[in-house]
Write a structure and sequence with these properties.
DUF7730, DUF7730 domain-containing protein
């Protein structure tokens, strides 16, 4: 190419219309904090100062306010359920109408598996809590988690002090790990990290890399884990899986192993005393002794120090 030809090509190139990249829709950033605003306007600051001096509640000592907030927002069992609508996971919450039932059932199962009495009947989760969780035709007025939260909307300072207490001070009860995953994905990190007490009312098998990562990153503050396992449908002799030859239920529960865990209760039971293994090659029945031994092993594995 001659010098003149090169100059003409450069001139033509400079005169050509510039190619403008189409504006791509900006991905909406997800709020990562409970309170996203880090700075206060002059008006907000004035409201803060006025509330601190004029509000009977905010004039109380912080420890007294925390006690009041704990009574209002904590001490309950929250049922968590999920369903799919038009390709989206819809998470719903409701407050348990049978307070203390889980503890009573756990004590009964513990006595049963410890061979301290004859076989007892254990109420199934679904019919017992139908009034707590039915959103279609509840026989009793349904109390949702939202009914606990209006106090957080009263003013910004109260929200800042108490916004995480509903997650920290309540027990979250979920029938399945899949529904728990849907629930955790709706929470910002601060809310998920505040959860300390979790109960699986009917522990199922669900082990995936995605869910394991979700449990590890979201449930950093989990201190108490309770797992009811109905062996009317599962068996201790279910073929082991994985490189360590661990049964599927244990493998699923080990996803919740965390240094923060303080208490783990694994509570296996069965309603049909004649149930046997699904495999013809292993006809041994599931006994209370075998369930108790299995449960103690799972609890020890979950509480063992990280290696």
């Amino acid at each position: 190419m001659t010098k003149r030809t090169a100059e003409r090509a450069a001139t033509a190139s400079s005169m050509a219309p510039a190619v403008v990249e189409q504006d791509r829709p900006k991905k909406k950033s997800r709020r990562m904090k409970v309170l996203s605003t880090s700075k206060l306007s002059a008006q907000q600051k004035q409201i803060y100062e006025s509330n601190a001096s004029n509000s009977p509640l905010l004039r109380l000592a912080p420890e007294i306010r925390n006690r009041i907030f704990s009574i209002l927002l904590g001490g309950k069992t929250i049922h968590v359920r999920s369903y799919t609508s038009k390709g989206s996971h819809i998470v719903i919450h409701s407050v348990c109408k049978i307070p203390g039932h889980s503890e009573e059932t756990a004590n009964t199962i513990t006595r049963h598996n410890a061979l301290l009495g004859a076989a007892e009947h254990f109420d199934k989760y679904e019919p017992l809590h139908s009034d707590c969780v039915s959103f279609h035709a509840p026989r009793l007025p349904l109390e949702t988690m939202a009914s606990m939260l209006p106090v957080l909307l009263s003013c910004r300072q109260i929200h800042q002090e108490a916004a995480l207490l509903p997650y920290q001070l309540n027990n979250f009860m979920c029938p399945s790990m899949e529904w728990l995953g849907s629930f955790l994905q709706t929470l910002v990190p601060a809310q998920a990290h505040a959860i300390e007490d979790l109960t699986f009312s009917n522990t199922s098998t669900h082990h995936t890399q995605t869910f394991q990562k979700l449990a590890k990153t979201k449930l950093r503050g989990l201190k108490r884990l309770t797992c009811f396992v109905d062996f009317s449908h599962y068996t201790l002799y279910w073929g082991p899986v994985g490189p360590d030859k661990i049964d599927p239920i244990t493998l699923s529960l080990l996803q919740f192993k965390s240094p923060a865990l303080v208490t783990v209760s694994v509570l296996p039971y069965k309603n049909d005393n004649s149930i046997r293994s699904w495999r013809d090659s292993d006809p041994a029945p599931i006994t209370r002794e075998s369930m108790r031994t299995w449960a103690l092993g799972v609890e020890a594995a979950l509480l063992a120090p990280e290696t």
